[in-house]
Specification:
heterodimer; A: alpha+beta; 3-stranded mixed beta sheet; 3-stranded antiparallel beta sheet; 6 strands; B: 225 residues; alpha/beta; Rossmann fold; 7-stranded parallel beta sheet; 8 strands; 38% helix; globular; binds guanosine-5'-diphosphate; binds magnesium ion; binds zinc ion
Chain lengths: 113, 225
């Protein structure tokens, strides 16, 4: 379960940020997880709580914001929601589409006390 | 109190992957991360590739596996250097595992390094391991629904090999649908249909690899000047 490795990454970031800010306890952790990532939020929450036991983040609540998959056409500039992973521009048919959102795996902010 | 963080969770792994890639790129070595389900034919493809290209290219293999070294033995029999990484049950390789074995390879004359990842279409997709490119193997016995179920491994791959086409008459695999889905996920992908049993279609795969190795060498040459 690779969510364990991802949860460890979150915990490392969170504990460092908490220590840098002299926080005693982390109350909430806000994550941004893209639609096109291989992460199951329930598995992530489970892994995180088992890793965080005994740390300043032990009681922290994980909030996951799922970021929609959005592409931008390099030819006509159109931005669009990518459905069924079709990376073709609905405006001009171009295959030159870059991902501008939907691949996030990010700690956005923490609430500490 | 609220602390704004905005930190990428996989940053640490990505940094190590960049270090590994830099070390290999200095020597102009093309590094391929080979992905696919267990049994899709990753090791079979490697065996064929080595037999076809080892006299032409200097290559080495890193074998990722949960517990065994069976695949590494198969590669060693083909007569190229191979290093085993056992993840001890871990579902993917990460960059530090690859960094940890680099000193067991003679990088001096190496041109092509292929890393067979742990068999899995999900977990390895998020972890860069220092590769220049990924390639994904999908066998026709797995079903044509897999690209849309696991789009990330196809989105990130430079090439996809649809393997075991010798078995097409015995399956209900819809090759046209699979092709359509893979290319709409990744319009730039090199899509190769092949059989590692009969050898059909593999010439296109060898040519793709030759092209990548040549391009990597040319890029390193430009940098070295
Ligand atoms: N019929 C057929 N069998 C294949 C082909 N490629 C691989 N196999 C068989 O599929 C099984 C799994 O192959 P292997 O290379 O070990 O897959 P890996 O787990 O992805 O490394 C082995 O029994 C291979 O002989 C193919 O193109 N056609
Ligand atoms: Mg194998
Ligand atoms: Zn367009």
């Amino acid at each position: 379960m690779h969510e364990m490795a991802i949860a460890q990454g979150i915990l490392d970031i969170v504990l460092k940020a908490a220590a840098d800010n002299d926080a005693a306890a982390v109350v909430r952790i806000k994550l941004q997880v893209g639609e096109m990532t291989e992460v199951v939020p329930e598995a992530l929450t489970f892994c995180f709580s088992s890793l965080a036991a005994g740390t300043a983040a032990a009681a922290a609540e994980l909030e996951v914001e799922v970021m929609p998959l959005v592409g931008r056409c390099r030819d006509c500039g159109r931005e669009f929601r990518v459905e069924r992973f079709r990376f073709l521009c609905p405006g001009c048919g171009s295959a030159g589409v870059e991902i501008i959102s939907g691949r996030e795996l990010r700690v956005e902010h923490l609430e500490v006390e | 109190m609220e602390i704004k963080v905005m930190a990428n969770i996989l940053d640490k792994n990505d940094q190590i992957a960049a270090e590994v890639n830099a070390q290999l790129s200095r020597r102009g070595i093309f590094v391929l991360n080979l992905l696919g389900s267990p049994g899709s034919g990753k090791t079979a493809l490697l065996e064929r590739t080595i037999a076809a290209l080892k006299d032409e290219l200097s290559m080495a293999v890193i074998e990722g596996d949960l517990f065994t070294d069976k695949d590494a033995e198969r590669i060693a029999r083909q007569g190229v250097p191979v290093v085993q990484i056992n993840t001890g049950g871990g579902c993917h390789l990460d960059a530090s595992m690859v960094r940890g074995v680099l000193d067991r390879l003679d990088l001096e004359r190496l041109e092509l390094l292929i890393i067979e990842n742990v068999g899995n279409l999900v977990c390895p997709a998020e972890f860069n391991i220092g590769e220049d490119m990924k390639a994904t193997v999908l066998s026709v016995t797995e079903g044509e629904d897999k690209p849309l179920k696991y789009p990330l491994v196809f989105k990130q791959a430079g090439a996809a090999v649809v393997n075991k086409i010798d078995l097409l008459p015995y399956t209900s695999f819809d090759l046209a649908a699979a092709t359509e889905d893979i290319t709409s996920i990744n319009p730039q992908i090199a899509l190769i249909t092949a059989s590692c049993r009969t050898g059909e279609g593999l010439e296109a795969w060898y040519d793709w690899l030759r092209g990548r190795v040549a391009a990597k060498k040319a890029a390193a040459g430009r940098k070295g000047e």
